[in-house]
Write a structure and sequence with these properties.
With about 260 residues, the chain is of the alpha/beta class. The chain folds into two domains: about 180 residues, Rossmann fold (3-Layer(aba) Sandwich); about 70 residues, no CATH class. The protein contains ten helices and ten strands. The strands form two sheets. Strands 6-7-8-3-9-10 form a six-stranded mixed sheet, with helices on both faces. It is globular, with a radius of gyration of 19 Å. The protein starts with a strand and ends with a helix.
């Protein structure tokens, strides 16, 4: 479902601020893979997701989704293949629009706009049932403006919007990092249910090593713009946080000293 071949990216090339963000990343995901990505600041985690989404052009290499080469496609053309949830709960929704209007936008992603009524009655029934899955009571507030919701409610809604029209690839960029621990746990539980229940292919960046081990069927570790560790199946299930720290030291040749990663133990 995703094939990344020798992708490289350097920011501010030829200047004093030159930063080699990706140094030949190779990654292959089969349909239904749920991969967590960990690594310190500047490891290349979010940059990898941005390259897939088309936020920045790659310098070299190839990116394919479901056999389609999207390496040079602009971001808006890739949107029909990709669902994305950001770290900031405010980024994934339109605050001045109703909950049902936000869901209608998500359902129409990639379609041509017409002049018909905005939301049909049968659509409202779909949205009502989908919102019930969140367990947050939003199905009884479908006409409420999204700006009135809490950060956790907005992030859960964003997650629903990203998966409403089954994407070929779901990108989750530290999507629980800005939430309080209880709300983050709820959103992560919803994420796991949606990805596994819908058999989605997903990449989830996280700083929480426990979550990285517990969620998904595969874990990759990045450092200095490269993938330095890739583990799946029973080997992943049996990992501990201390194992990951040792693996990082062995693969990177240095100790992991990122504060957020250490606090997430």
């Amino acid at each position: 479902m995703l094939n990344i071949v020798n992708v490289r990216k350097t920011f501010n090339k030829g200047t004093i601020n030159e930063k080699k963000a990706l140094r030949g990343v190779n990654l292959h995901l089969d349909e239904g893979d749920f991969v967590t990505i960990i690594g310190g600041n500047g490891a290349g985690k979010s940059t990898t997701l941005n390259m897939i989404a088309g936020v920045y052009p790659i310098d070299s290499g190839k990116i394919e989704i479901d056999g389609i080469n999207i390496s040079r496609e602009p971001e808006y053309k890739r949107a029909k293949y990709i669902g994305r949830v950001f770290q900031d709960p405010m980024l994934g929704t339109a605050a001045d629009m109703e909950i049902q209007e936000n869901l209608a936008l998500a359902l129409r992603r990639g379609q041509k706009r017409g002049l018909g009524w905005g939301i049909k009655s049968e659509e409202k029934e779909i949205y009502h049932e989908q919102l019930k899955r969140l367990g947050l009571g939003l199905e009884d507030r479908m006409s409420s403006k999204v700006g009135l919701l809490s950060g956790g409610q907005r992030q859960a809604l964003t997650l629903l919007m990203a998966t409403l029209k089954k994407p070929k690839l779901l990108l989750l960029d530290e999507h629980t990092a800005a939430l309080d621990p209880k709300t983050a746990a709820k959103v992560l539980e919803l994420t796991n249910e949606m990805v596994t229940g819908e058999h989605l292919t997903a990449l989830m960046v996280t700083h929480n090593m426990k979550d990285a081990i517990a969620i998904g069927n595969r874990l990759i570790m990045m450092n200095n713009g490269k993938i330095i560790y890739d583990v799946a199946g029973d080997e992943k299930k049996n990992l501990t946080v201390d194992d990951l720290l040792v693996k990082f030291s062995e693969a990177a040749g240095e100790e992991l000293s990122n504060d957020r990663m250490m606090l997430a133990k």
